[in-house]
Structure formats: C-alpha cells, structure tokens
Amino acid sequence: MSELRDRARQARAILEETIVDALDGQPGGFYNNELTRLLDLESDYEGRQSNYLTYSLLGGLLTDGRVKKEKRDGRTYYMKANEP
User: Fold this and answer.
1) What string of DSSP letters covers 64-82?
2) What is the pTM of this model?
3) Is the pLDDT of residue 45 over 90?
4) Residue range 2-80, CATH number
C-alpha cells in the first residue's frame, strides 16, 4: 500500500511542477479551463465537477504559496507566485 501512495505522491509532484512551469511562461496567468486544455488534463465527466483535477492541484499550490490567483473579467486567473 505504501508503494501506491509513493507513486501517487510522485505523480502529483510531477503534475504540480508542470502546472508551475506552464504558469511561469504565462505572466498574465491562465484560468482553469485554459490550463486543463493546455496540459491535456480535461476530464471526460459531463457533470458540474469537470476538470476538478487541476482545481485540486491548484488549491495545493495556492496553499503552498507557489501560485496566486486574481479575479478579472468574472474569471479567476492563476499565476505563478513571486519568488520570496
């Protein structure tokens, strides 16, 4: 069971780094759907909770201070946080 958790943690870390790298190349940021399309992480779920994977990953990155968000034009944009 711990091997499965380790693999999941590694996969999450890779996805988080990929998101941060994508945001680093886009100073104006992305909103969630743009990011999911760019990284080909769109969900196949047809309900209201589509593309939740990237929301979840962005939430962790926000908590860690690696990403910040800004509301513009009725949308929430995610950007790489400034380095300390």
Assistant:
1) HTSEEEEEETTEEEEEEPP
2) 0.88
3) no
4) 1.10.10.10
